[in-house]
Design brief:
single chain; alpha+beta; 8 helices; 34% helix; globular
């Protein structure tokens, strides 16, 4: 990141999330951000998450390696890159800088998907407060790579006792995984409950495979946990 940009105070960001707001920009090169509070909010009820059979097969084959907080800056940069059907990103430089600082402070997290050659091929990032996780964006450079990151995230949130997975908006793509829309009043009630509940981000980290790579999470463990707790 070079050149001037407006810094967003991280304490202000956390207060905004706790009040049901989040920032966006019009374009990648926009100098300003605006605050959004949707009338209808997208969420994925954690116990109602749907794991497609094809994705479960991919995870069981250990096609990918699964990690968290290993490459936060790379994940948010990839989410901001142009993609087919999305030539412009709402992640401007102010937002990218602020979330990198939130990550350094322990409030923002990334979930990474790697291929067999060690290339980062998918992932997502978001903000954690209490038992609420606010999903911000995801990217994919291989088939099922971002979907694998989402499945990993849901397993991690379930294991850690989280209550709320906020997706900001509902999309048909997220709907295939069990996402629903709720009114603002319902969302704020769910948010209040989640903010008052403790949760553990690292509770899922014991599901590591045996062998030389003990830093990654097993794809089989993700499937096993999701199917056993659904």
């Amino acid at each position: 990141m070079t050149g001037p940009f407006r810094r967003i105070d991280t304490a202000l960001l956390l207060r905004a999330y706790a009040a049901g707001l989040f920032p966006m920009a019009d374009r990648r090169d926009s100098p300003d951000v605006f605050w959004v509070e949707p009338r209808r909010r997208g969420i994925i009820p954690l116990e109602a998450f749907h794991l497609p059979r094809s994705l479960a097969r991919t995870l069981k084959r250990e096609t990918f390696r699964h990690t968290v907080d290993r490459a936060f800056a790379e994940v948010i940069a990839a989410c901001a890159d142009p993609a087919p059907g999305r030539e412009q990103s709402w992640i401007n430089r102010s937002i990218e800088d602020a979330y990198n600082r939130l990550h350094q402070e322990g409030h923002a997290h990334s979930v990474e998907t790697w291929d067999a050659n060690g290339e980062l091929v998918g992932g997502l990032y978001g903000v954690r407060i209490g038992a609420a996780f606010f999903g911000e964006s995801m990217f994919s450079r291989r088939t099922d790579a971002s979907k694998a990151a989402l499945a990993h995230l849901v397993a991690r949130l379930r294991a850690g006792g989280f209550r709320l997975l906020d997706t900001q908006f509902w999309t048909p793509h997220l709907g295939r995984f069990g996402a629903i829309e709720v009114k603002r009043s319902r969302y704020l009630a769910l948010l209040e409950e989640a903010l008052a509940t403790p949760a553990c981000w690292t509770a899922f980290d014991t599901r590591r495979p045996a062998g030389p790579d003990t830093t990654a999470i097993s794809g089989k463990a993700i499937v096993q946990f999701l199917t056993q707790t659904s």
